[in-house]
Amino acid sequence: MSPSESAPPSEPADALPAVAPQLRSLRRRASLTLEAAARDAGLSPAHLSRLETGQRQPSLPTLLSLARVYGTTVSELLGEAPTGRDAVVRAADTESTAAGGWTYWPAGAPGRGMQALRVRVPHGSQGDVVRVHPGEEWLYILRGRLRLRLGDTVHRLAPGDSAHFDSLTPHRLAAEDPDGVELLFVHTLLQSPTATLCLGPIQGGTT
Fold first, then answer.
1. Alpha-carbon distance 33 to 45, whole Å?
2. Cα(13)–Cα(114) distance, rounded to whole angstroms?
3. What digits encode the pLDDT tens for the residues 129-175?
4. Inter-residue long-range contacts of 158-163, CB under 8 Å, 24+ positions, other chains counted
5. Is residue 63 packed enough to be buried (19+ CB in 10 Å), middle (13-18) or exposed (0-12)?
């Protein structure tokens, strides 16, 4: 099942100055046409075009899918400069990025087999985005309450609760509280034959 394209109303293009051109640049770096990239990511060419021109903001499922297709990381899609592969990520060195109404902070180093983010999900944002893809996801609720649908089952998670599931299970998440929800999010494609595509460039190594 491909992600829903009933995205929230678009915001001004200058709300994400780095993301739109970065999406186009990384697609071209991967030598993919708009049509081919959209097909591989489960999007329509028109929707991907709107993302690349800043008319739409990408949701987290869309970012994960495009990162896999382009052989990069969510951080690079968001225009964040590589910080190396240090074991420690300092809060003072991280900057937030907004996309699709969600706010992201990097919580892990690039070039790893897992993508770790701290995510803030506002109420009413992306609740209808359903995603199915290879890999695993792990969520840990820091603040607020999350509604997580896995297949036909709905789970409500409170601070301190976590979920670890196979990403091939159709899933979607939404904030239960008006103030939104903040969570830690870890994603890996290690169950997939194309796992290496999510790792991004390894600093100082061979490609």
1. 10
2. 30
3. 677 777 788 999 999 999 999 999 999 999 999 999 988 888 888 99
4. 162/138, 163/137, 163/138, 163/139
5. buried
Q: Which residues contact 1 (CB under 8 A, 6 or more apart)?
A: 130, 131, 132, 170
pTM of the model: 0.56
Determine the straight-line distance between the first and last CA of the chain, rounded to whole angstroms.
31
Q: For residue 85, which phi and psi values (nearest 5 degrees)?
A: -115, 40
